[in-house]
Amino acid sequence: MEEKKKPDVNVEIQLDEEVAQGVYANLAVVNHSETEFVLDFVFMQPQAVRGKVRSRVITSPQHYKRLLLAMEENLRKYEQTFGAVPAGPVVPAPIGSYN
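Now predict its structure.
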């Protein structure tokens, strides 16, 4: 049985100037339910006990897995070019609620 090839589709993605500036985050908190994953990107000042969520992304489990695979592939390529990246210490999950 011959497998049908899907036609190439051109996708246009808009990037607003404000979003293009990006935000710096040095901590990520991931939560999930049965139907979605929530990724909070947080900036923590050194020696601080409180951080601020800079960006929140809510996505489906299927897209989360594709994102995870894409990130692993990009890290592999990065390390091939620039060398291994040390993981560093694991930061415990924040306790309490966001204020």
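The CA atoms of residues 19 and 70 lie 21 Å apart.
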